[in-house]
Amino acid sequence: MDFLNPVINGFSVVLEPTNLLYCLVGVVIGMLIGVLPGLGPAATIAILLPLTYGVEPVTAIIMLAGIFYGAQYGGTITSVLLRLPGEASSVVTVFDGYQMARQGRAGTALGLAAIGSFVGGTAAIIGLTFLAPLVASFALDFGPPEYSALALLGILLVATISSGAKAKALIAAAIGLLLATVGRDMFTGESRFTFGSLQLADGIDFVPIAMGIFGLGEILYNLEERHRAAKAPSKVSNVWPSKGDLKQASGAVGRGSVLGFFLGILPGGGATIASMASYAMEKKRAKQPERFGKGAPEGVAGPETANNAAATSSFIPLLTLGIPANATMALMFGALLIQGVTPGPQLVEQNPELFWGVVNSMYIGNILLLIMSLPLVGIFVRILRVRAAILAPITALITLLGAYTINNSMFDVTLVVVFGVVGYLMKKFGFEPGPLVLAFVLGELLENSLRRSLLVFGGDPTGFLTRPISATLLLVFVLVAVLPGIRSLIAKRKGTAAPAGATNKIEEKV
Amino acid sequence: METTPAVSAGRDGSSAFPSGGDARNDLPEALTPEQLAAQWEAEKPPAAGALANVGSSLVVLGAGAGALILSVAMGLGTPGAPQPGLWPFMISCAVVALGLFQLILGRRNRDGEKFTRMSFAPLTGLATLAAMVALMPMIGFEIPALVLCIIWMRFLGGETWRSTLLVSALVVASFYGIFVLALGTSIPRLF
Question: How far is B119 from chain A (nearest CA, A)?
Fold first, then answer.
C-alpha cells in the first residue's frame, strides 16, 4: 500500500480549488481550439506559456496538459460535422465520421468518439500510474552517457517520424541545437554567438522561441489559407449511442486504448500516428472492410480512443526520463524548467505532489471533457460559427501582450515577432518547426551530458559503447538513422526492375 | 492498408494518387478516403519549385558555415578538454552536411509551398505586428492594437465594416480590462 499513498495524496492536490479551476480552464481551452480549425494544441500552449509564470508548477502543468488532451476531444467535432479535421490527430475520423453524419448519425458518431476518448484517456492514466514509477526507478541509474544517447535518439526519432522531408526535419533539429548554444558556455563561462549583445548573454529564452515559432508562425501561416466556407449545422441531436452501437465499437475502443498507449510512449509517436495506426488496424481486422469509409462506427471509435490514450501516455517519457516524446511535450518540458522543476527520474520521488497531481488531474479533466462532449456538445457546435477572421487578430494580440508580460520588456516581444517570421518561413519551405523547438529544449541537457561523459571517459568517445544502456541506445540511433536510406535504396533497385514505385513509396510512409 | 498511406500522402504533399483530381468539382458527397485525400491535395497551395529548395538550402548552408567559422574562432580543444567552440562546431558540421544533402538530393522534394498572391496577407500581418512593436513603447498598446484588429479583420479577413469596428473596439477594451485592470501588468499604455 505504500506505493498508493502518494497517488492518493495526489488527489488532494487536484481537489484544491485553484487546481480544479485551472484544470477546467485548460480542458475548455483545449476543447475550443480543437473545435476551431487553425491553431493546434502546440501553438495554443506556446501562446499561453506566459500565463504559467504566476502560478504553482503543478497548477501550470495541469492547465497545459488539459489543453493538450482536451484538443483531442474537440478535434472530433469538426471532423464529423464539417469534414474538416480540427487537429491532425482527427484526420482519419473524417472518413467514417462524416459519412455517419451524412446518414443522420452525427450525434452517434460524436457520442462514440467521446466515450472512446474517455475510455482511452482513462485507461492510459491507469497505465501511466503503474508504468511511470517503474520506468523512473529504472532510469535512476542513468548517468550522463545514457542521457546523451537518450537525448540524441529522442531528437532523431521526432525528426524522422515527422510528416515532411526527413533531411529538412533534421536540419530544423540541428538549428535548434545551435540556437541552444547561444549565451554563456556553462563549463568555461565564455560567451558564444552573442555578438556583444548583453540581452543574449544569458542565452535565448525558451518562451519567445516557442511563442514565435509555434504561435505567431502558425497565426501568420493561417492568414494565407483560403478560408473555406464552413456550413455548420445548427444542432446535433441524439449523442447517446445505442447499445448496439456501443457493442459494435467496444472492440475498437479496447484495441485503440492499448495501441494508443504504447504508441504514445515512443519518442516521435503520439496522437496523430496512434489514430492512423488504429484506423488501419480496425480496417484490417474487420470482417467486411468495405464498410470502412462508408460510416463504420469502429472507424470513429478506434482512432478517437487511440489518440486520447496516446496523448496521455506521451507524458510518461517526459515525467520519468525528462525526454519529451513530441513537440507539445517539449513545451511542457520548457514550462517546467521555467518553474524551476527539472523533469527526470527523480521527479516521482522528490516531487510527488507535482507528479501525482498532474497525473490525477487527468481523471478529472477527462470527466469534464466527457460532460462537455455529450450533454454540452451543442455549445461547442455553435462555436463552429466563430469566424477565423475574428480570431486571428485576437490570438496575435494575446501573443504580443503575453510576450511583454514575461519580463516586462519589448526585447522579448521583438524576439517573438522575429521567430514568428522564422516559423512562418519554415512552414512555407517545408521545414517542420517541432524538431527545432524540441532540440532547442534538449540542447543544454545534451551538451552538458555529452561533455560530462567525455570527461569521465577521458576524451575517448568509444567509452559510450562500454556501457550497456548507452550502447544499446546508440545502436538504435544508428539503425533509425541508416535504415530509411537502405530501404529507399532497395526500393529504388526494385523500382527499376519492376515499375511498382508507387506502392513502395506509399509503404515507406506508413 | 490502402487508407493510411492515402492519408499521410494527403498531408505531406507528395504526388502519386490513384484517383485523379476530378473529385474536387463534382460529387462532393460520395467520397472515399482516397478521393478525400486527393481533394485535400488539390486544395493545397501550389508546391514550391526547385528554386525554393536551392534558396532554403543555401540559407541553411550559410548559417551552418557562419556558425562553423565562429566556433572554430572560439577554440575547439580536444574531446577530453573541450574549448567552448567544440560542441557548436560539431553541430555546425551537421548543419552544413545536411544543407549540402538537401541542396543536391532534395531537388525533387515538394514539401515547400509557392508564394502566391495570398502571401501578401501574412506580409501585411507582419507589417502591422512590426508597427505595433515599434509604436507600443511610444503611444501605448491601445491605438496600435485597434488598428491591427481593423486591418486584420476588414482587409485580411473580409469582415464587414460594421462587425470589424464593433469587434475591434470590444477586443481592445477587453484586453485593457484583462491586462491593465485585472492583472495590473505594466504594458505600455496611453490611458
Answer: 6
